[in-house]
């Protein structure tokens, strides 16, 4: 009786910390992940509401003195067309958010499914998917973009398709290897022994257990998609000229102007790109540390 009462007292004394305390403890353990989450949240907010909260019209010319430096009225200065750089940086988040999120969810999402299917099914399915990835890796990505541009014309749709195809095989092999390990786990054998079908095990068990790794890979693909969109805009192959875009604001004549001492024209768009890509990578690393029990402290 005394032993049972002591056990009951022990269970009564233990109380799971509240959600707020658990989140605070997690934030203390993963400060880099918190930073990445905050920056990405700001990026998403600006992508949705950016054009409505800009201090000036990002497309309007001569709102200030051309190439004017940072000041109280124009915190990031003005470019050579007299456009407010801060307004263009804020509005440029929408283009990057639209293209990168669409490309990641379409390309990386489909690629994750193909990677898991390749590792689980094996045989000819695995052979077909992996050889397709190797064939794509041997094909220059810029040439593929030119072919898509010829077929569909310039525009956001073409950029999304090109980046999505690149993301299709990005984390394919990582998920394939993880799936091969997962399909040989004891719980899969137990599910087979009680009569679960192959598709049920695949969708209800294997995919669910690989979702954390998929989210981590997609967060990394987000940064890659933003860099790809900015790179195409830098080369003059992105959205239409004049559209607020971080890549456009760092390209062409703006580089020449920056060499003359007007550094603010390209530095602030470059900082925006660097911050978002860094935040995506930091958040992905933190999610991996949180969800992988082997990496928990």
The ordered string of helix (H) and strand (E) elements is HHHHHHHHHHHH
- N- to C-terminal distance: 38 Å
At CATH level 3, the topology is MetI-like fold
Which CATH first-tier class would you pick?
Answer: Mainly Alpha
Taking all residues together, what is the mean pLDDT?
79
The CATH architecture category equals Orthogonal Bundle
Any idea what the radius of gyration is?
A: 24 Å
Q: How many distinct domains?
A: 1
Oligomer state of the chains in this structure = single chain
The largest sheet is: none
Strand content: under 5%
CATH superfamily: MetI-like
Counting DSSP H or I runs of 4 or more residues, the number of helices is 12
Low-confidence stretches: none
- State the helicity in percent bands: over 70%
- Total DSSP E strands: 0
Report the principal-axis shape. Answer: flat
The helix-and-strand class reads: mainly alpha
């Amino acid at each position: 009786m005394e032993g049972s009462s002591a056990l009951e007292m022990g269970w009564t004394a233990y109380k799971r910390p509240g959600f707020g305390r658990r989140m605070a403890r997690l934030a203390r353990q993963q400060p880099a992940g918190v930073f990445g989450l905050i920056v990405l949240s700001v990026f998403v907010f600006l992508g949705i509401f950016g054009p409505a909260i800009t201090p000036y019209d990002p497309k309007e010319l001569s709102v200030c003195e051309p190439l004017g430096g940072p000041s109280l009225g124009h915190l990031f200065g003005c470019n050579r067309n007299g456009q407010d750089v801060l307004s263009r940086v804020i509005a440029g988040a929408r283009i990057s958010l639209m293209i990168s999120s669409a490309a990641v969810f379409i390309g990386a999402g489909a690629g994750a499914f193909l990677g898991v299917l390749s590792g689980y099914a094996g045989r000819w399915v695995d052979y077909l998917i992996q050889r397709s990835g190797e064939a794509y890796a041997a094909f220059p990505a810029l040439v593929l973009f030119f072919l898509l541009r010829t077929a569909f014309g310039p525009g956001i749709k073409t950029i999304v398709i090109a980046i999505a195809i690149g993301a299709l095989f990005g984390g394919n092999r990582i998920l394939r290897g993880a799936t091969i390990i997962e399909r040989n786990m004891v719980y899969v054998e137990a599910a087979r022994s009680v009569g679960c079908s192959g598709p049920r095990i695949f969708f209800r068990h294997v995919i669910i257990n690989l979702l954390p790794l998929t989210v981590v890979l997609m967060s990394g693909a987000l940064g890659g998609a933003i860099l790809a969109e900015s790179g195409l805009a830098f080369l003059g192959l992105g959205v239409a000229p004049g559209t607020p875009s971080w890549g456009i604001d760092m390209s062409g004549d703006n580089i020449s102007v920056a060499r003359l001492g007007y550094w603010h024209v390209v530095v602030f768009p470059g900082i925006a790109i660097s911050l978002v890509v860094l935040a995506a990578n930091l958040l992905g690393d933190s999610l991996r540390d949180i969800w992988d029990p082997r990496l928990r402290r």
